[in-house]
Design brief:
The complex is a heterodimer. By secondary structure, chain A is an alpha+beta fold. Helix content of chain A is 29%, strand content 23%. Chain A has three domains: 165 residues, 2-Layer Sandwich (Aldehyde Oxidoreductase, domain 4), CATH 3.30.365; 193 residues, Aldehyde oxidase/xanthine dehydrogenase, a/b hammerhead (Aldehyde Oxidoreductase, domain 3), CATH 3.90.1170.50; 229 residues, Aldehyde Oxidoreductase, domain 4 (2-Layer Sandwich), CATH 3.30.365.10. In chain A, strand 23 and strand 24 form a beta hairpin. The chains are: A alpha+beta, B alpha+beta.
């Protein structure tokens, strides 16, 4: 196989044979001998004081191993849930969080008791017999009311409901821009709260072996090393005593990054009961307890000139933090730093306010902050265009950061690495047939039909990230990535990565890189991940579209080190000077005499033998860390076409086209798959999904997949894709990230199309989800 | 308290004493160790647990194990034969119809029934035919392509078609 063939090729996934035949290894598929099953009793109320918990009947129930409340875990579990600084180092109030409530429950679903039994059903039966007496407290639900003086508090002992209130840049920075403005548009833009709904709910299985003092945890996680760090710390164990295994994971979307109460409780229950303990989340538990995404609103003003030149933006972000600070919950304010989008601005002022409520905590959800930023800026730009009666394409072109501007330092000092925004826009216009669509729209309007075309010329920062930026954000650990490449005596290669694949296809793509680089057959390269007992000292996990741009580059660096050592050994074997040895197409040869060569496999075998150069150790393996010099910046253009039923208000997405640029591509099939999935997740936000709580009682009203409207194949149109390729100058592979692109881009395109469709009625802005009843009411009101 | 249930699963006969409340999906996973059938919800929305019961696609969380008495079941584990993938499995692989893979067994079983009922479905018919199954990764694009491609393969080689529902016999 020619060496340059694999990178860039559509290689079918190695993961698939086991997954399509039913032989995957998801955490619920594994059960240890002697396992006891855990069932958690959860608060039915959003906010209440726990008066008493009576476990008498439950303890006598058949098959029960034990019933436990907060008191039983005190002394066995220290500390609170970690709250990373992320983008807001200064917090006003971070409520303490013990994994099981003792005196006060602060959201519906918070754990108050645990049952262990011989079978799942016995555990559930016993849990029903636990009597908890609550004293109801007012639930804090509305962000604005929560900020008012005298508001009830989400935690009775807290000072107020402000988790953070941080100004990145004050309004003074935009004064000149607003003074110069011909028009100012103003809008409040909502971000509906979303449930991530990975198809596999979470699950934790733990086995604490008391005599060895060793703990093994099998769980559905996006970053097992961070879980090892958090859980070992809380349980008073050394990291070296804990092994975390995340086998096949059925999707994460951000909801399997942070530690959860069960991640601490299940291992501790195993320690208490001295036997393996297993817990598998139900879907209802998942929607109720897995961290939610979005849940924000923005007050935004934009100043522009008559000719469409964008001047200044003022934005205040309000984040519904939920009842506790999600471990990476303060990541969402990155939306402020990205609010300028693909455009040049004289000034942007930004402030973020995190509000504590009695809902489940929010945390990163696919895109995390960047979908919100795109939605905000793309909506605001359209509002300016509408005000100036400009074509949405023209206003975008006028304000784009231009190819010659890169590297471009944007308003918050972030350096955008590379891009060609017009090129992607041009291609997308062609792909969807823009001119024809506008003609068709004009005709349909004459017939009283509401068809609209919506744009999203999105950009993204991802690939977290440079140590200087990320170490302060996590509280000390830089989000670099590690890799190990090990060559066996027979020349096969095992690659260990600290990233985690839960659908992304790393088992396929990372070996593509290594096989090309080492010139060995693809089949002889294996990837290992998801087990803290294997590979490098620390892995940083998968989120923020970082696996390839950071982890892939680390792997490539490690492979480079293997080649370096191989060269030294080959020089010795060929009796040549090291600087005269060249490595090409999987073999080392002397410069100018390609027949004088040693194949990679021969060198690998020799490295385990006795005839080594002076001072060289045996073996052929290397560890590398990659600390990227910058984040990477994918971009693209998405165009949605929507028709809204004049009678019912039902929006029908009729066409969708996306042209995305993620730099160099390792496997185009996987890239397209990531984009498809991302787009549909954002279409879902735009049209269907919303976590709804009762505004008075704090009761979750969308606790099942009956009420939480995740789209099926039947709601989704065909999606047209194309690409441009602008390599990133910040890493050797020239790659960016693509895991979140679709989700970052698509909601704005859909909502802009809806607003365009309804513009003849004078409707300027529609919030998500744009459900038929919402649109019907707006249309009815507008017609009156 | 316990009831006897005798079933044929993927061509093999089984007999167990089970609690009447035991769901069929739990029976498959916990009693028979057939963990390829997944659980993705508790309200019969997601379709991850879809299997064939006497040739018909059924969400196995909607049946009690005791209701499977005397029935012939096919789960995802029964689709490949002698190391050869079923054309629908092959099509999911070829068309990148899966990412995390959790919903995949359910989609493959639902597709098997769909193609049994309608060997040459239109794109619309596929989308409607699969609306009992949820996927969070693929946006359904490549799932639809996979079913289209499987339909083509299966109608070109009628012998393959026969294996769709004969898995249990």
């Amino acid at each position: 196989m020619a060496v340059t063939q694999l990178v860039g090729a559509k290689i079918h996934r190695r993961e698939d044979p086991r997954l399509i035949t039913g032989h995957g290894h998801y955490v619920d598929d594994l059960t240890r001998q002697g396992t006891a099953y855990a069932h958690f009793v959860r608060s039915p109320l959003a906010h209440a004081r726990i008066k008493s918990i009576d476990i008498t009947d439950a303890s006598k129930s058949p098959g029960v191993v034990g019933v436990y409340t907060a008191r039983d875990f005190k002394g066995l579990l220290a500390g609170t849930h970690p709250a990373a600084p992320a983008f807001v180092a200064e917090k006003k109030f971070v409520p303490e969080r013990f994994p099981i409530a003792e005196k006060e429950v602060t959201y519906q679903g918070e754990i108050v008791a645990a049952v262990l039994a011989e079978t799942k059903s016995q555990a559930a039966d016993a849990a029903n017999l636990i009597q908890v007496e609550y004293q109801d407290l007012p639930a804090v639900m509305d962000l604005e009311k929560a900020l008012q003086k005298g508001s009830p508090k989400s935690h009775v002992d807290g000072p107020d409901n402000v988790c953070w209130d941080f100004t990145y840049t004050g309004p003074e920075i935009t004064e000149a821009a607003f003074k110069e403005a011909d028009v100012v548009v103003k809008e409040r833009i909502l971000q509906n709260r979303l449930a991530p709904v990975p198809m596999e709910p979470r699950g934790v299985s733990a086995d604490y072996e008391g005599f060895d003092k060793k703990l093994t945890i099998w769980m559905s996680s996006q970053n097992p090393h961070f879980i090892r760090l958090f859980v070992s710390g809380a349980m008073g164990l050394k990291e070296s005593q804990v092994r975390v295994v995340s086998p096949d994971v059925g999707g994460g979307f951000g909801s399997k990054i942070s530690p959860y109460p069960e991640d601490y409780l299940v291992p501790t229950l195993s320690r208490i009961a001295e036997r393996p303990v297993k817990w598998t989340e139900t879907r209802t538990e998942s929607i109720q307890n897995a961290t939610h995404g979005r849940g924000q609103f923005y007050d935004c003003e934009v100043a522009a000139k008559k000719d469409g030149t964008l001047l200044g933006m003022r934005v205040v972000q309000y984040v519904d933090v939920g009842a506790y600070h999600g471990t990476f919950g303060a990541f969402q304010p990155v939306a402020c730093l990205m609010a300028g989008g693909a455009y040049k601005w004289k000034g942007i002022s930004a402030r973020t306010v995190g509000v504590l409520t009695n809902r489940v905590p929010t945390d990163p959800y696919r895109g995390a902050g960047r979908p919100e930023a795109t939605h905000l800026v793309e909506r605001m730009v359209d509002l300016v265009a509408l005000e100036l009666k400009m074509d949405p394409v023209a206003i975008r072109r006028k304000n784009f950061i231009q190819p010659e501007d890169f590297p471009f330092t944007q308003n918050f000092g972030l350096v955008v690495d590379s891009g060609d925004y017009d090129k992607a826009l041009d291609k997308a216009l062609q792909l969807i047939g823009y001119d024809e669509l506008r003609k068709k729209q004009a005709e349909l309007r004459k017939q009283g039909r509401y068809m609209g075309i919506g744009f999203s010329t999105w950009i993204e920062l991802c690939g977290f990230g440079p140590s200087a930026a990320t170490a302060p954000a996590t509280g000390g650990i830089a989000l670099v990535e590690s890799a190990q490449v090990r060559v066996t005596p027979t020349g096969s290669v095992i690659v260990y990565t600290g990233t985690h694949s839960h659908g992304q296809g790393h088992e396929t793509t990372f070996p593509q890189i290594v096989a090309d680089q080492l010139g060995v057959p693809y089949e002889s390269v294996e990837l290992r991940h998801g087990d803290t007992a294997e590979g490098t000292a620390f892995g940083y996990g998968t989120y923020g579209s970082r696996s390839l741009a950071v982890g892939g580059v680390a792997i490539s660096k490690a492979a480079g080190k293997v080649i370096d050592k191989g060269k030294k050994l080959a020089a010795h074997m060929l009796e040549a000077a090291e600087e005269d040895v060249v490595f090409e197409h999987g073999s080392f040869h002397v410069k100018g005499s390609p027949d004088k060569s040693k194949a990679f496999g021969e060198v690998a075998f020799a490295s385990y033998g006795m005839n080594l150069p002076e001072g060289m150790e045996q073996g052929l393996e290397a560890v590398a860390y990659f600390d990227p010099p910058n984040l990477v910046w994918p971009f693209g253009t998405h165009i949605a076409v929507v028709e809204i039923d004049a009678e019912t208000g039902a929006p029908l997405l009729t066409k969708y086209a996306a042209v995305d640029d993620c730099g160099n591509i390792i496997n185009p099939m996987i890239v397209d798959g990531q984009i498809h999935g991302g787009i549909v997740q954002a279409i879902a936000q735009a049209l269907y999904e919303e976590v709804v709580y009762d505004e008075d009682s704090g009761q979750l009203k969308t606790g099942t997949l009956i009420d939480y409207m995740m789209p099926t194949a039947n709601e989704i149109p065909t999606i047209l894709l194309d690409k441009t390729i602008t390599p990133s100058p910040t890493n050797d592979l020239g790659v960016k990230g693509i895991g979140e692109a679709g989700t970052i881009a698509a909601s704005a395109a859909v909502i802009n199309a809806i607003c365009d469709a309804l513009s003849p009625l004078g409707i300027k802005h529609v919030d998500m989800p744009a459900s038929p009843d919402k649109l019907w009411k707006m249309m009815k009101e507008a017609r009156n | 308290m316990k009831h006897k249930v005798a079933t044929t699963v993927n061509g093999r006969q089984h007999e167990h004493e089970v609690e009447p409340r035991l769901l069929l999906v739990h029976y498959l996973r916990d009693n028979l160790g057939l963990t390829g059938t997944h659980i993705g919800c508790d309200t019969s929305q997601c379709g991850a647990c879809t299997i064939l019961v006497d040739g018909k696609a059924v969400k196995s969380c909607t049946m009690f194990a005791v209701q499977a008495e005397g029935r012939s079941l096919v789960t995802i584990e029964g689709m490949a034969k002698g190391g050869e993938l079923h054309p629908i499995q092959q099509a999911f692989w070829d068309e990148h119809g899966l990412q995390c893979g959790y919903c995949t067994p359910g989609f493959i079983m639902a597709a098997a029934y769909l193609l049994e009922q309608n060997p040459n479905p239109t794109e619309d018919e596929i989308r409607k035919g699969l609306e009992g199954n949820l996927c969070r990764c693929t946006g359904y694009v490549n799932i639809v392509k996979a079913v289209q491609s499987a339909a083509k393969t299966m109608s070109a080689t009628p012998a393959k078609k026969a294996t769709v529902t004969a898995g249990g016999n």
